[in-house]
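**User:** My hope is that you can spare some time for a protein that puzzles me. As I understand it, each token names a local backbone shape. I would be glad if you read both lines and explained how they fit together. The protein I mean follows directly.
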Amino acid sequence: MIYTKEIAIKEEYDVLVAGGGFSGFAAAYAAAREGARVLLVERSASLGGVGTQGLVNHILGVRLLSEGNTLVPCVGDVFAELEKRLIARGGAVDVDTLDLDLHPHGWYPSLGTGLVFDCEQMKLILEEMLFEVGVKILYMTDILDALYEGDRVSALVLHNKSGLFAVGGYYFVDATGDADLCTSLGLPMQKGDEDGGMAAASLEMHVENVDSAALFAYMKETGDLRFRTIIERLRTEGKWSFPYDIFISVKMPREGVYMINTIRQVGVDGTDGDSLSRAVIDGRAENFALLAVMRAHFPGFSQATVRSIAPTVGIRETNRITSHYTLSVKDLVEATEFADGIALSAYGWDLPNPKKPSHQPYHGVRRASEFTQIPYRSLIPVGVDNLLVVGRSIGVEREVLGPVRVMGPCIAMGTAAGIACTLAAKTGAACANVDVTDLRARLIDYGGYVDRAQCERKKDV
């Protein structure tokens, strides 16, 4: 069937951002802060992506817990402003108030270095920040296609309750998480491992009425922070049929409320509509089955009840673009220093085997630095001049997704992409021809981090 329809280009913007997750939010904010006219298109009804729609209320990768129990930041600027506003309103936990020897907000002390936040406060503050710099937000809008002229994207074909229309632009940021714009343009990319397998998905659940004192007492007494001992016994007794071997709970700002980041759904394809539909349906049922086991066997959870289950499934891995530079495992192991570094992550190897969701193939692989530096070239897809990609779809070897896919570095990447688009717009240059010295200087001026040395100097301060 061939379907044709004549549609109008409604408006034109300096920068169009596809996707309102944390990376898209940061890109839109940074570009508009530089004076660009910006439109952000989001298919759901809120900003924050998996952090809000997916109920993963825990931003990771933003700082490191050093050996001296010193917190060393590696993501600043937009994240720092967001964190400050959330804490001021009681919408986030101030990490400086936590006991990082054994804190209540993560199953490993180092994960207390992240930001645990209230979902609804986050949605509101993200919107407020964008409105302050003049970004237009278009919610509940699907991106159907990207139009291409020569080596440049010219417009996005959109659909919402107003119908079918197009919006033009000069520079574009693909913050969809799955490189949807790149897919529409037919650009080269990779998906999953060599067999097409991808890390398991998770439909998140929040529970309430948890007895924190009982939970922390068990953790402190046994050191069994992931409940491996209990799960091994339950599996032996035939009471644990799930394909994962650990239990992960994160305490939310409200007492007795926990995010349960435990279920791992094997075989989900985040780019396939049928697969995503099954994942949501199966995930809801699996969360209730897990809760029954939690109530019967896990310390602190005997009275727990469901507070909410995410309306969308959390996807860890799909497409990765073919970029001007592919960040490699070797780069992380040897701590390669990039002259075009524009973002950092303090998160470690975390990309489970597609068929064994509790197995981390690179666990224990030593690195010369605990900070991952992300080069600007990894955000530039081959084959198009005015498009940047941010988030987990940038050009990296698969195992490198572990450190770069979490929300902290995604915010940093988005910030860099937003500023880069405005620098390119000054002369109409291709994104690949942006002066990275200027870009890095702008990021540092705003309080961002681009080099490991900026962080290493703070370890002993």
In short: The chain has a mean pLDDT of 94. The radius of gyration is 22 Å.
